[in-house]
Each structure stands twice: as structure tokens, then as C-alpha cells.
Amino acid sequence: MRLRGTACAAAGLLLAVATGCTGGAEGAAPATSPTPARATGERATGERPLGESPESPRTAPSPTTADPVSLQALMQREHTGSGLRLGEVLDRTSAYTRYAVTYETNGLTISGIMNIPEGEGPFPAVVLAHGYIDPDVYFSGQGMPREQDRLARSGYVVLHTDYRNHARSDKDSDNDVNLRLGYTEDVIGAALALRDSGRPEIDGDRIGLFGRSMGGGVVYNTLVVAPGLFDAAVAYAPVSARPEENIDHFQRPEGDPLVTEIEDKHGTPEENPAFWRGVSPLTHADRVSDPLLIQHGTADDTCPLVWSREAAAVFRKAGKDVELRAVAGEGHTFGPKWAASMDVTEAFLARHLR
Q1: Do 96 and 183 meet the contact criterion of CB atoms below 8 Å apart?
Q2: Which CATH architecture has domain 2-353?
Q3: Residue 346 is inside which H or E element, if any?
Q4: Which tens digit of pLDDT belongs to each residue from 11-35?
Q5: What order of strands is seen across the sheet that includes strand 96-105?
Q6: For FRET with 332, which of 35, 213, 234, 316 sits at 20 to 30 Å CA-CA?
Q7: Using CA atoms in the order 154, 159, 160, 166, what is the torsion angle rounded to 10 degrees?
Q8: What per-residue confidence (pLDDT) applies to 354?
Q9: How far apart are the C-alpha atoms of 123 and 114, rounded to whole Å?
Q10: How far does the signal peptide extend, from start to end residue (predicted)?
């Protein structure tokens, strides 16, 4: 995959979405092994004991022909991200200023919010990928308010992407039936736009990625489509790395008519197994080069912990730097132990971005 629109990196090398707190689910596609986006070699990695016994990973060979709706097609695409524009000031605190922003990615304008810390930069940046919220009720910056505030107070520029079809972003009518893979493009574009911004507050060479629920699936996709684009990645309570599991868990029980559209276009997993292997980032685990922290509550009844156990096991088997932290008693949204979990997250980000 080739990346454009960045002043700091030349070329390089995104699980598609599923659902967050209320429903919806999806995935991504096949792989090849282009040169990583920024690094000349893969980061030193090593397995970390999880303290648990993950399920045996279900692996499958990568298809050789890229479906246009696939992770492999995204790998082969030349991605762009630029034109980061700060708009209206939404809030001022003693620690940071909050702005409405837009940026360009692959021909679309994407909206979001950005928190810029007070003080002298440049500051490392973190892109936030939110969980599923119905686009009909979503408002700009919704989804991760606690993380936006805390990270900005800790000295990070925070760019929370709305994704396409949300808030003031441009529309993509095929995105849902195509397993919401466009959200992965939006995250890649956010990183490239940060690098290309030229703003003195932003250190475009130090960028992290943080997604929760559906956004955790977007994190997985991004790591296999654009290895090396981010310095580190965090996923909270992520959806399954297998899009068909998300559909069966979230959409099919609710009678979502989108399921029929998806299967009419792409076939069922039984009819077209190659397509469904291709939209799983687990199929492309060998491509990951960025350190990954997964935090998941043991009492999560929205996204089962077993999904994160399997993803971590597959990435570890591929020799990747991944840590799974099971947070005892926490549910999907994290409550009493959220602050402590963020201590762990910030320590992880500091090791790789500071």
C-alpha cells in the first residue's frame, strides 16, 4: 500500500468494523506483503504471557486474488490524507483547547474534533476510533469523551475521527454493505493528515492509535493494512476479528436487513469462504509491525472476552508484540477500573511515543 499526503514518510504500506455499544458489525480482506509504511524493518517483538489460556487460533491461508472489497485491496491502494483544518473553538479548558476539524482522505472530507494541549509543543498525537453509534443520532466527537479529555490533559494532541457518513463527513453509500471498510481508510487518512499538517503543535513522527469496541476492529484492520503508520495501538473491548461473528452476534438476531444485502453481494461464509477469510485481519497477522495493547473486561456481555483472546493468540503466534490485559469484573464500557486501565494505556503510549 502506498501512502501519500505526508511530509515525514514516503511510501508504505487497514478489520473492518463491527459494532460498538449498540450493534452493527463488519470486517476487511486478503493480504500481500508490501513494504511497511515507515519502518525499514519490523520492530523487535516477543510473546508476552497473558496469564490465561486463549483458544487455539483458527488460521487460514490468504487468498491470492484481491476482492475489490477486501483488506488486500486496501493494502494495494494509494492512500491519501491531508488538509487538516481547525474550525470553530468548541471549548477551552486550563489544559487544552477543543476544535471542530476536517481533513481529506481518499477523496472524501471527514469531520471530527481535536484537542490541543496548552503549552509549548510539538506534542505526540493519538487518533481515536470510536465504537458503533447510529449515524442518524451521532454528533461530532461522540463516543470517547473520557479518553479525549484525559489524553489531552496528559499532553497528547487528540484527533477523534467521526468517520464517513457521520456528523459533517462526506457520504459513502456503499460503506455499510462493504463491511464499513471505509472507516479504516478514514483512520489511515487521519494519521497522514496529522503528519502533513505542518502545525507546530503536532509531532507528526509520534502518532498512536486508540479504538474501542467497533473502533478496536478498525485498529486491527489498520495494523495489517498500514503496518508502521502508527507507533503504537490500543484496543478496548474490541469486536471480533472475524466479521461474520460480529454479524451473527449483533445484526442477525435483530433482523437487520443489511445482513441480506451483505450476503447477496458477497455470499455467506459457506458460499464464499475466501471472501470472509480475506476480510479478517487474522488472515494477515504476519503483516503487523506495531506494538498492540488490548484491554478487555472479564464481565463484558457485549463483546465477549474470548474474541480478544483469540486475536491476541493469533498475533502472538505470528511473533507480534501484543499484550492482552483482562480487567477483572469490568463490563463493555469500563467503570470503576477505567482510570486504572488508562494508567496502563498511558504508560504503554509513553514507552512508544515519548
Answers
A1: no
A2: 3-Layer(aba) Sandwich (3.40)
A3: helix 338-353
A4: 333 333 333 333 333 333 333 333 3
A5: 2-4, 78-92, 96-105, 108-117, 157-161, 123-129, 202-212, 232-236, 292-297, 322-327
A6: 316
A7: 170
A8: 80
A9: 13
A10: 1-24
